[in-house]
UniProtKB/TrEMBL annotation:
This is ABC-type dipeptide transporter. GO terms for cellular component: plasma membrane. It is found in: Cell inner membrane. Keywords: ATP-binding, Cell membrane, Membrane, Nucleotide-binding, Transport. The keyword Ribonucleoprotein does not apply. CDD domains: ABC_NikE_OppD_transporters (cd03257). One of its GO terms (molecular function) is ATP binding. It comes from Oceanospirillum linum. PANTHER family: DIPEPTIDE TRANSPORT ATP-BINDING PROTEIN DPPD, OLIGOPEPTIDE TRANSPORT ATP-BINDING PROTEIN APPD.
Length: 330
């Protein structure tokens, strides 16, 4: 049994004009110690999926269909008390901006001790000892001193390390990291991602990494999910997706990487932009931006086609598969 299994998940937001679906028919599994990347442009539904796993969708949003099974138990049906035992304890979340995550009027130590005592019956002294150990794990120098400092006294990289340490406090089974290196410079980004992989491997913690950067996903994760307009359009082993992207959108993301451009020329880009959830095109949502447009793309939502070890939602891939099989059948 997988550690986490998401089945037919739908998330809707109730507006005056009616319900708008932010996630549609999302399915995937995550095993213990496995690292999964969620990729896509802003508005693809990555963060909504991360929040929905912990049932943190704020009104007027709600999980309108499907299941989120953690060790076989549906998180979507749990009471607030049951969820409190899961959040921060069994499943932790690391948010984009550490200055928004950390309380500016409490010291690092006060925040870490408070987190520990919310889930465990533990003394201040023991909680502080565990907090110092976790700060050491994330390679913060002089943790005995840093623990009594306020967030504004630390650099951006240090604050992000503190947030990771807080995420590891309860020895969780899963960490959901929502663009954890967005506010950092490139060299610090690489250090933080290397640290997260090392900690996950050492503690056998599963990781869901939410990002728009396929380059980071290729270095950190074992499986990848590419999302577009609230739907999974390609998923499979990361290496297979990076080396042989099947969906035109995934190919566009790959071609948009700086290293894919010819030196001295403009960077490649996908024309157009992500559609509004209130105006998702009929058929394949990517069809207005696609270079391989077919009649079926504007009329019919593509089902999933198995290509190698990947699942792809694209009429073009299905046609190519049929064309490959036709000569053999004949």
């Amino acid at each position: 049994m997988p550690l986490l299994e998401v089945r037919n998940l739908e998330v809707s937001f109730g507006l005056r004009s009616g319900d708008v679906k932010a996630l549609r028919n999302v399915n995937f599994t995550l095993d213990r110690g496995e690292r999964l990347g969620l990729v896509g442009e802003s508005g693809a539904g990555k963060s909504v999926l991360g929040f929905s796993i912990l049932n943190l969708i704020s009104k007027p949003g709600r999980i309108s269909d499907g299941q989120i099974l953690f060790e076989g138990k549906d998180l979507a049906d749990m009471s607030p008390e049951e969820l409190r035992n899961i959040r921060g304890n069994r499943i932790s979340m690391i948010f984009q901006d550490p200055m928004m995550t950390l309380n500016p009027v409490l010291t690092i130590g006060q925040q870490m001790v408070e987190c520990l005592q919310a889930h465990r019956n533990i003394s201040n002294e023991n909680a502080r000892t565990i907090a110092v150990q976790k700060l050491q794990q994330v390679q913060i120098p002089s943790p005995e001193t840093r623990i009594d400092q306020y967030p504004h006294e630390l650099s951006g990289g240090m604050r992000q390390r503190v947030v990771i340490a807080i995420g590891l406090l309860m020895d969780p089974d899963i960490i959901i990291a929502d663009e954890p290196t967005t506010a950092l410079d490139v060299t610090i980004q690489a250090e933080i991602m290397e640290l997260m992989v090392e900690l996950c491997e050492r503690n056998n913690v599963a990781l869901i990494l939410i990002t728009h950067d396929l380059g980071v996903v290729s270095q950190v994760t074992q499986k990848a999910i590419v999302m577009y307009a609230g739907r999974i359009i390609e998923q499979g082993p990361t290496r297979e997706i990076i080396n042989d992207a099947q969906h035109p959108y995934t190919q566009g993301l790959m071609n948009a990487l700086p290293q894919m451009a010819i030196p001295g020329q403009r960077l490649n880009q996908i024309r157009g932009s992500m559609p509004s959830l209130q105006k998702i095109p009929t058929g394949c949502a990517f069809n207005p931006r696609c270079d391989y447009l077919r009649d079926a793309c504007t009329k019919q939502l593509p089902g999933y086609t198995v290509s190698g070890n990947c699942k792809v939602a694209c009429h073009m891939v299905a046609e190519l598969k049929q064309a490959e099989q036709a000569p053999h059948e004949a």
